[in-house]
Design goal:
Layout lengths: L2 H6 L5 E7 L13 H20 L3 E11 L7 E12 L3 E12 L9 E12 L20
Antiparallel strand pairs: 1-3, 2-5, 3-4, 4-5
Length: about 140
């Protein structure tokens, strides 16, 4: 994606999580640790998958994850979630992370940090896959 394309792009989906990066979240080079960003994405996706499936879900895979820019201490990180697909027991959710500096050097524009597709499976009390029932607020099967 070119710089011009990124400048015109806006977040897709709904705001699922917003948080502030802290010094404890940095890697040895002073940037926010990629694993921390990944965990924020998984939290946001887990919230959406549980709401859509009306119950417990587990993460089973992450596809097409691309980090585009580093995140700094003091950046506000926003994770946007978009429901892409609902199968019998699985859900695919596209997650985008956008960030901007609000502490110190204020930035008016947010920038795309990373994006990926997370797959979740709805499970029952015994940890076995369960059917995802229609949830008209999010989807209905034809």
């Amino acid at each position: 994606m070119s710089v011009d394309e990124q400048a015109k792009r806006v977040p897709g989906g709904v705001l699922a999580l917003r948080t502030l990066t802290m010094p404890r979240d940095t890697n040895p080079h002073g940037d926010i640790f990629g694993g921390w960003i990944l965990s924020q994405m998984d939290i946001a996706g887990g919230l959406m998958s549980s709401e859509v499936s009306k119950g417990r879900t587990v993460t089973v895979s992450v596809d097409h994850l691309t980090f585009r820019r580093p995140v700094r201490i003091g950046d506000t990180v926003c994770v946007y979630a978009e429901l892409l697909r609902v199968g019998n027991s699985s859900l695919d959710i596209k997650l985008e992370v956008w960030a901007r500096q609000l502490v110190g050097a204020y930035e008016a524009e947010r920038q795309l940090v990373t994006e990926g597709v997370f797959r979740y499976v709805a499970i029952d009390e015994e940890g076995k896959p369960r059917t995802v029932a229609d949830n008209p607020g999010f989807f209905t099967r034809s």
